[in-house]
Amino acid sequence: MAQQIQAIRGMNDVLPADISAWQHLEACAREVANSYGYEEIRVPLIEHTELFKRAIGEFTDVVEKEMYTFTDQGGESLTLRPEATAGIVRAAISNGLLRGARHKLWCIGPMFRHERPQKGRYRQFYQLDVEAIGFAGPDIDAELIALTARLWRRLELSGVRLEINSLGTPEARRAYRELLVAYFRRYESALDADSRRRLQGNPLRILDSKNPQMAEVIAGAPLLSDHLDEPSRAHFQELRATLERIGIAYRVNPRLVRGLDYYSRTVFEWLTDALGAQDAVCSGGRYDGLIAQLGGEATPAVGFALGIERVVDLLVQAARVPGAVPADVYLIVNGAAQAGAAIQMAEELRDALPHRRFEFNLGGGNFKAQFRRADKSGAALALICGDEEMARSVVAMKPLRQESGQTECPRSEVASRVEELLLRLTSRPSG
Ligand code: HAM
């Protein structure tokens, strides 16, 4: 036997048995985003490497260690997107969408990071990404957080908690950064290798370290919240007041810094205790400087991304996944002569009742075997197209989930009779 080819480590198949949770989450996300007036955008999976280097930052884990970068046939350095924000901003600039206009956008799709795979952390993973471009005030920050809170309610997920922080303006952060570097230099011998490296490029990320041996040094570090610029402080105050007014509980976490460099002012994260180490299910923040940094006219913006696999895990754990939708009708062919006519009838039924699901018995089989398949399909109704019935231009109908007898109807009326019967047999709406 030829050797089997395995999937790439950290890249998962989503099998039909697991798809209902994904579809449910995607449908609810679309519904909620739409209810706030956000529009879908689709951008390429691959961009110039330079885009991510400039947007995410040279000294971030994502750019330093995790990007899938390759040189294409034309000699260009390209990268599989590790996140969606950079591509969406690039799209807004290169399609001339800015010019003072405002855009509320969302997209769903796969992202790629060469991380060490473990539960909840994959090399190909999906995000729901939501971005609001052209809005400066804290009202939109609050709206995005309200949108996520509404999505949790719509999905009937409890047990996710919100943490927020403000990173201030880049200028305020530069001054704070100097304080932080001076502080950590005093404890350089206590820093681990990662943190020592970050001391040069990205000292704020040291605050984010998960190494328990670093906890004490980090606990003593100066807090950014004590060194915020006044407008950022006011922005954060107003965000907090709005969240309180609309009843969204939060905790201010002064150590929340985020792993991507483009943030300024508000950052937030929704966390869960139900998934182990990978506890962030949705993260985002404001990135007022990014658009100018990528060559567009200076435009404030804010957004977030939700990790679909992690939220799907929460849905499965909490048993909040709707059951798979079974077939409505199974078409049984009794006798070989009329198989072609039966397929034709199935096509006509799909034309007439596009909202219904018809399964045609493929590959023949005796009457009993076909009934077994019909039963397994979960269909509410079997249509029996036997040679004898077809010769009389009628079709037999047999409810499969109820003790009621077989009836017959003329072929010309089959679509309306099927719909009538299905409405009676199931409580599902006719679409
Ligand atoms: P991020 O924090 O890098 O932010 O990712 C957002 C979410 O994606 C995380 O909270 C997590 O749920 C999920 N996620 C990240 N990495 C993985 C992984 N390897 N496997 C599974 N899930 C993962 C961003 O990507 C920003 N672009 C968010 C944003 C949008 N900020 C402003 N606008």
Structure overview:
- The protein has 431 residues and is of the alpha+beta class.
- Helices cover 37% and strands 20% of the residues.
- It has 15 helices and 16 strands.
- It has helices spanning 19-35, 49-56, 61-66, 85-94, 138-154, 170-186, 193-201, 215-219, 230-245, 290-293, 308-317, 339-352, 367-376, 387-391, 414-425, and strands spanning 39-40, 46-48, 68-71, 77-80, 103-112, 124-133, 160-166, 251-252, 266-272, 280-286, 301-307, 329-334, 358-360, 381-386, 394-399, 407-410.
- The chain has an eight-stranded mixed beta sheet with strand order 1-5-6-11-10-9-7-8, sandwiched between helices. Strands 13-12-14-15-16 form a five-stranded mixed beta sheet, with helices on both faces.
- A hairpin with a 5-residue loop joins strand 3 and strand 4 (77-80).
- The radius of gyration is 28 Å and the shape is elongated.
- The two termini are 48 Å apart.
- The structure holds histidyl-adenosine monophosphate.
- Histidyl-adenosine monophosphate (HAM) binds at residues 83-85, 113, 115, 120-122, 125, 127, 129, 131, 259-260, 280-285, 287, 303-305, 307, 309-310.
